[in-house]
Amino acid sequence: MDHPRRAIDRLPAPIVEVLQATLEPDESITHVVPAIGCALVLTSRRLLVVRDGSAFRPRTGVREWPIGPDLAVAAGLVRQGTGNLVIRWERDITSVFVRAGQWNETLDLVGAVRGRVRVARTREPR
Known about the structure:
Radius of gyration: 14 Å
CATH class: Mainly Beta
CATH architecture: Roll
Low-confidence stretches: none
Distance between the termini: 36 Å
Number of strands: 7
Strand order of the largest sheet: 1-2-3-4
Strand content: 35-45%
Largest sheet: 4 strands, antiparallel
Order of helices and strands: HHEEEEEEEH
Number of helices: 3
Mean pLDDT: 87
């Protein structure tokens, strides 16, 4: 997997600008995956989907989910050069399509999210 800094360098400049404006000062990026029409970004606190043209879509250009017990991600199959990642938060479901060339990076991101969600569940009071 690329170091997050190198992965960010592969993203279009408008997405990088929106991403930098979205991050909190003490929040760090751990995973970046270029996807079709957007970028998947995992930070120390959140999972983000930053859409192409997000600067023109202030309400829908950036979707975010805090890493916590209600977040679930599932990697589908790669078919005809494209894989599908499903993000679930309570009743909200979002699909992101990723080219086969970035699929291993996507699986790394999915594993990292699931590990953090597991930790969040063990810390949740019962």
